[in-house]
């Protein structure tokens, strides 16, 4: 059975999608951008933006009863591959052991002109 996951500790969806959907012990988190849910602001640097994205993902994981240890797949979208290394350094702090499978792509543009967006899949 499909369950919609929502928390006020992560940004509201800016389109017709849910923050996350859980089905059969698998959590599918929509791409998270670096919007601070409390202030609506977006940090400037790639490091700060990645940190905010990971906090947003963490809040959704927590709301659904998961942790970063449950994450099995991430997809990282970057506005510029020059940001790959600094994004990776922040991302790595959240997956110090047994990191998930991952893909990273440079795209032409991201919503709200952010530098990074990350979608996540977690399994219990």
Walkthrough of the structure:
This protein has 124 residues and is of the alpha+beta class. The chain has one domain (3-123): 60s Ribosomal Protein L30, Chain: A (2-Layer Sandwich). 23% of the residues lie in helices and 29% in strands. The protein has 2 helices and 6 strands; from the N terminus they run E-E-E-H-E-H-E-E. The chain has helices at residues 46-64, 84-93; strands at 3-5, 20-23, 26-32, 71-78, 101-106, 116-123. The chain has a 6-stranded mixed sheet, covered by helices on one side. Helix 1 (46-64) runs parallel beside helix 2 (84-93). The mean pLDDT is 97.
Structural class: alpha+beta
**Discrete helix count:** 2
CATH topology: 60s Ribosomal Protein L30, Chain: A
Arithmetic mean pLDDT? 97
**C-alpha Rg (nearest Å):** 13 Å
β-strand amount: 25-35%
Could you state the CATH homologous superfamily? Answer: RutC-like
Instruction: Give the count of structural domains.
Output: 1
Q: How many strand elements?
A: 6
What's the shape? globular
- What does the oligomeric state look like here? single chain
Write the element-wise H/E pattern from the N-terminal end onward. EEEHEHEE
Largest sheet: 6 strands, mixed
Named CATH architecture: 2-Layer Sandwich
The top-level CATH class is Alpha Beta
Q: Would you identify the regions where 5 or more consecutive residues have pLDDT less than 50?
A: none
């Amino acid at each position: 059975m499909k369950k919609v996951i929502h928390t006020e500790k992560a940004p509201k969806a800016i389109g017709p999608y849910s923050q996350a959907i859980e089905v059969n012990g698998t959590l599918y988190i929509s791409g998270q951008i670096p919007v601070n849910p409390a202030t609506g602001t977006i940090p400037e640097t790639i490091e700060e933006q990645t940190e905010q994205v990971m906090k947003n993902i963490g809040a959704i994981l927590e709301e659904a009863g998961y942790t970063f240890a449950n994450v099995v797949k991430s997809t990282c979208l970057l506005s510029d591959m020059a940001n790959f290394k600094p994004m990776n350094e922040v991302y790595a702090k959240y997956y110090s052991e047994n990191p998930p499978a991952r893909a990273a792509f440079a795209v032409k543009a991201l919503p709200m002109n952010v530098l990074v967006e990350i979608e996540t899949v977690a399994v219990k």
